[in-house]
């Protein structure tokens, strides 16, 4: 048959035939990368999975199977009827028809589908967070190789056409489902290490100031905390300062408990006891509670409060941060009325916190963020020279810490992804907390349709302003003005981590996008 001779031809043909598949796989990785907003803050480098487990059982009884004539296009978890079913990643419920719940994720080309419910606790249009319960599992029969009886059938669906169009095709989710961001005992922090400070107020302030919040924002949070609990972790509402109420005593109370007075107390205590195997001392420690709160504000865990976190991170002053935390996180009685005198008290206390603890530099290892300054943030995260590699370890130490926190991409080479870098800068600086985490096409669409940006297609190099986002087919970077002899900062997928470089193809290949109302940069 002359195989030796024909192989190269077959190889060549096969390569072209396979091109669409290669693109599909690349898109899948890209799409999944953008889902990783769970930001498992892991300066150590272990990556969280793109999706959490949809049930408390983590082993699928029936896996993906596309070998035989009958296929199984998902994973079956054999859980008793009435078991908790959880969203595998944050997203929006797009269907609850029939046996199904379908959730569309941040990258609209990706959905997760769940089948067989006893009851559903979400409706179309609901926003859900990773790990949030969406219903109780039920019973159903699939054709073999799928299961019959009590179980949950789970699917990952991805649009495989150009730019995220086309039909939603099932993909094997096996390697994408894993460590659930809602459990586990992350010791996450940008700075890591023990709490720093002479008392609980200062420790709490330093914790947030070194975990991605500006000092103003940290003061706003702690100013509220002082009014809630005097920053006493074992304090039950309506008890005097210094009186301890341990988790097992407080968990049944309808009152508030802990540094931010989680109400009712069990709302925070129950998942914490579960996660620590009933370690009361840990649950009533300041460390545990600060980390629990930090994750809430990042939109993680069983009590996700991502929108409140974004409001705090958008605040530019101590006073605004105090109001944002009171209004969007604490939601104390009367908080809808911004003239409520409780706001004045909290603002004043936050100001005192800032004056008392905010004088020095943020503790070592702090990420520093939220000042609205795109240029300063980009320069802080990027090397000021070119020529660096593409791996995580090649990135500046600050970017290694900041990217997981502020972007969270865990897909294909996230540390060298251009869009991930621009998004990390936009989100971390506070200039635009809503900036899509990944893929230039998604970002370009956002820049052109969000209403927040002016987009200049025919711009010349000398018309650029520092902070402009340059975006074109397949690449995006930042114009930062003078930067150690260069004028731009960029990463390049598979090429290099964020670093200095020069602008090119302005107004031809690349349009410039400029925030219409940038937050005023502060020194
Ligand atoms: Zn199944």
TrEMBL record:
Boundaries of every M23ase beta-sheet core domain copy: 71-159
Domain Phage tail lysozyme: 199-357
UniProt keyword terms in alphabetical order: Membrane, Transmembrane, Transmembrane helix
Segments passing through the bilayer: 7-32
InterPro entries noted in UniProt: Cell_wall_metabolism_enzyme (IPR050570), Dup_hybrid_motif (IPR011055), M23ase_b-sheet_dom (IPR016047), Phage_lysozyme2 (IPR041219)
Superkingdom assignment: Bacteria
Classification via Gene3D superfamilies: 1.10.530.10, Glucose Permease (Domain IIA)
Protein name stated in the entry: Peptidase M23-like protein
UniProt organism field: Kribbella orskensis
Lineage, top ranks: Bacteria, Bacillati, Actinomycetota, Actinomycetes, Propionibacteriales
């Amino acid at each position: 048959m002359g195989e030796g001779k024909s192989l190269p031809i077959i190889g060549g043909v096969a390569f072209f035939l396979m091109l669409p598949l290669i693109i599909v796989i690349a898109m899948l990785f890209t799409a999944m990368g953008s889902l990783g907003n769970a930001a498992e803050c892991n300066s150590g480098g272990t990556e969280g999975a793109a999706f959490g487990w949809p049930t408390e059982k983590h082993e699928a009884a029936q896996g993906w199977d596309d070998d035989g004539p009958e296929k199984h296009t998902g994973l079956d978890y054999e859980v008793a009827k009435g078991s908790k079913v959880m969203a595998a990643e944050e997203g929006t419920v797009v269907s609850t028809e029939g046996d199904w719940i379908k959730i569309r994720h941040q990258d609209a080309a990706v959905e997760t589908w769940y089948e067989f419910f006893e009851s559903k606790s979400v409706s179309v249009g609901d926003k859900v967070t990773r790990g949030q319960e969406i219903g109780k599992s039920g019973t159903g029969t699939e054709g073999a190789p799928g299961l019959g009886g009590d179980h949950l059938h789970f699917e990952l669906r991805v649009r495989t056409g150009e730019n995220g169009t086309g039909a939603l095709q099932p993909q094997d989710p096996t390697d994408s489902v894993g460590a659930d961001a809602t459990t586990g005992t992350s010791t996450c922090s940008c700075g890591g290490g023990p709490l720093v400070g002479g008392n609980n107020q200062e420790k709490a302030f330093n914790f947030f100031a070194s975990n991605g919040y500006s000092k103003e924002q940290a003061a706003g949070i702690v100013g509220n905390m002082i009014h809630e609990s005097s920053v006493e972790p074992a304090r039950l509402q309506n008890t005097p300062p210094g009186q301890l109420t341990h988790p097992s005593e407080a968990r049944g109370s309808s009152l508030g408990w802990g540094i931010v007075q989680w109400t009712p107390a069990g709302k925070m205590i129950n998942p914490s006891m579960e996660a620590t195997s009933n370690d009361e001392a840990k649950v009533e420690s300041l460390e545990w509670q600060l980390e629990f709160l930090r994750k809430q504000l990042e939109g993680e865990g069983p009590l996700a409060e991502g929108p409140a976190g974004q409001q705090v991170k958008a605040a530019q002053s101590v006073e605004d941060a105090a109001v944002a935390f009171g209004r969007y996180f604490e939601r104390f009685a009367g908080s809808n009325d911004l003239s409520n005198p409780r706001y004045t008290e909290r603002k004043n206390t936050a100001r005192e916190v800032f004056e008392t603890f905010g004088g020095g530099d943020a503790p070592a290892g702090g990420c520093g963020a939220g000042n609205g300054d795109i240029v300063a943030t980009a320069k802080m995260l990027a090397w000021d020279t070119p020529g660096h590699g593409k791996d995580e370890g090649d990135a500046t130490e600050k970017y290694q810490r900041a990217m997981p926190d502020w972007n969270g991409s865990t897909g294909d080479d996230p540390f060298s992804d251009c869009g991930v870098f621009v998004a990390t800068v936009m989100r971390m600086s506070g200039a635009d907390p809503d900036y899509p985490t990944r893929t230039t096409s998604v970002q370009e669409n956002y820049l052109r349709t969000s209403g927040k940006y002016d987009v200049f297609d025919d711009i010349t190099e000398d018309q650029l302003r520092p902070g402009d986002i340059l975006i074109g087919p397949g690449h995006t970077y930042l114009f930062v003005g003078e930067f150690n002899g260069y004028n731009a900062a960029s990463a390049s997928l598979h090429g290099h981590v964020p670093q200095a470089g020069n602008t090119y193809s302005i107004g031809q290949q690349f349009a410039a996008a400029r925030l219409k109302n940038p937050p005023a940069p502060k020194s």
